[in-house]
Write a structure and sequence with these properties.
Number of strands: 11
Structural class: mainly alpha
Mean pLDDT: 95
Strand order of the largest sheet: 3-4-7
Radius of gyration: 31 Å
Distance between the termini: 74 Å
Strand content: 5-15%
Low-confidence stretches: none
Helix content: 40-55%
Largest sheet: 3 strands, antiparallel
Number of helices: 20
């Protein structure tokens, strides 16, 4: 099976999760075809015809998005390919040529009507059909000359065929639109700049796209694009009309469609919090597809092997942040300790916990500390909170005020005093000796329950009630720093 799919975002804002899911499904669809003996090509295309809103910052963010997610592209920006350029702003001559060919074959016509005139005619006729009424479809030369004499510049409109448009949607099955409710649409502005309605199908045609997988919000544009694709086939611009599949809406709070403005929609916030790309991709895959009835966690490779577009559920999918975090936590358990260590370093550096570059001493301490926390972290961004106390000097070390108030009251300070006495008398400073001394002093001698015994000590030396295992933490801190922090808590 020959599959050529495209991911064609607009560089007009920050990337969002719906965009990432569309990229994922297209990428997996292509890779599945290649895995099963066919040809699978993932084309990355930038739709930047909106000159006012498109920015280089957003363009760079799109490249960064695919790189972070690990979705490599076969053709596109920086990579190149036989159908370039891959930015629409660099393809203007191609669109002009296609527009001329469409006009020569009477697939289009010039329209001189203003929006106010169209609205007035619709109100006068009582028509409930929104959009253009075809007034300029058959202008005679005198009418055209009169409009031109007024200084009007025409837009180019596509002649919609009569009847109905039916296609077999790869996700939704057969879909039919009556063309009487799909008015003739503009292909370019009056100044000649091409519109999305032209450039998107033309690029799909020239790039030989075979399958279009996109969001349900674009479903209403498909009955316009299919007749244009058929015209492009007739003109020899395209080889075939692509197959369309419309992916389900992603819903947010209150069962409303997840908006770009919703906080949970911002893709890079997940990266900044420390989601693994593998974990986020796994969760995004579940927004419309499942690898099995009782299985939620899987790798990208497993998804490629199992993916079938026919299995995508057309019903809306609800974004559940807690489930996304749970899926990510499962993937944190799947990566090796060495891999996790490398991945947390940038988070520790951004938080000022580690130097950049990391010193040899910091690296040795980190390698000793990571086995204590790797099973406790659900996101990489939790590393500074868990490990920061180990790398802080005494001047920068702080304790969580709420935790201090909760456990370092007078009774808690008594526990710290007893701890200082027990640890100050130790000859050996290792986990076993520390645990034996503290249990003997606090649990056996003072009769404290472990939770009450060790909570104050934990806050005193780590600054928080949540930390790596206490005895191991004390060993890593060392005698001098541990005793200094106990003294500081009592000061």
């Amino acid at each position: 099976m020959n599959v050529r799919v495209r991911f064609c975002p607009s560089p007009t804002g920050s990337p969002h999760v719906g965009l990432a899911r569309a990229a994922l499904y297209n990428w997996v669809f292509a890779r599945h075809a290649a895995l099963n003996g066919g040809q699978g090509t993932f084309v990355f295309r930038i739709e930047d015809t909106d000159k006012e809103r498109s920015t280089e910052e957003s363009y760079d963010a799109l490249l960064e998005t695919l790189r972070w997610l690990g979705l490599d592209w076969d053709e596109g920006p920086l990579t190149g390919g036989p159908h370039g350029p891959y930015r629409q702003s660099e393809r203007t001559d191609l669109y002009r040529d296609v527009l001329a060919r469409l006009a020569d074959s009477k697939f289009t016509y010039d329209c001189f009507c203003t929006t106010d005139e169209v609205d007035a005619r619709r109100k006068a006729s009582g028509s409930k059909v929104q959009g253009y009424d075809g007034f300029c479809r058959e202008l005679d030369p005198e009418q055209r000359a009169a409009f031109e004499a007024e200084g009007r510049s025409p837009v180019v409109r596509f002649r919609m065929p009569d009847g109905e448009i039916t296609w077999h949607d790869l996700v939704r099955g057969d879909v039919t639109f009556q063309t009487e409710f799909v008015p003739d649409f503009a292909l370019c502005r009056a100044n000649g700049d091409p519109l999305y309605t032209l450039v998107n199908p033309v690029d799909d045609a020239l790039m030989e796209v075979t399958h279009v997988l996109r969001g349900e919000d674009l479903l209403s544009s498909t009955p316009r694009q299919i007749p244009l694709h058929r015209a492009l086939v007739e003109l020899g611009v395209s080889k075939a009309v692509p197959d369309f599949g419309h992916l389900p809406f992603v819903m947010g709070e209150g069962n409303k469609k997840l908006s770009k403005r919703d906080p949970e929609a911002h893709l890079f916030s997940y990266r900044d919090e420390g989601f693994l790309p593998e974990g986020l991709l796994n969760y995004l895959a579940l927004l419309g597809w499942a690898i099995g009835p009782d299985r939620d966690v899987f790798t990208l490779e497993e998804m490629v092997a199992a993916f079938d577009i026919k299995d995508v559920n057309p019903n809306p999918a609800r974004f559940d942040l807690k489930k996304a975090e749970a899926i990510n936590a499962s993937h944190m358990r799947l990566i090796t300790l060495e891999d996790m260590t490398e991945r947390v370093i940038p988070f520790l550096q951004r938080a000022g916990v580690l130097s950049d570059p990391v010193t040899d001493d910091e690296r040795r301490l980190l390698d000793r500390a990571m086995p204590l926390v790797n099973e406790r972290m659900n996101k990489l961004g939790e590393a500074p909170g868990l490990l920061g106390f180990l790398f802080a000097d005494e001047e920068s070390f702080t304790r969580d005020e709420a935790d201090v108030e909760k456990v370092l009251d007078e009774s808690g300070r008594d526990v710290v005093r007893a701890t200082r006495e027990a640890l100050g008398a130790l000859d050996a400073w290792d986990t076993a000796a520390i645990e034996e001394a503290l249990r003997a002093k606090l649990v056996e001698e003072l009769g404290l329950k472990p939770r009450l015994a060790f909570g104050p000590v934990r806050v005193a030396v780590t600054g928080s009630r949540i930390s790596p295992p206490l005895f191991e933490s004390l060993e890593l801190l060392g005698r001098e720093r541990s005793l200094a922090r106990l003294d500081g808590a009592l000061a």
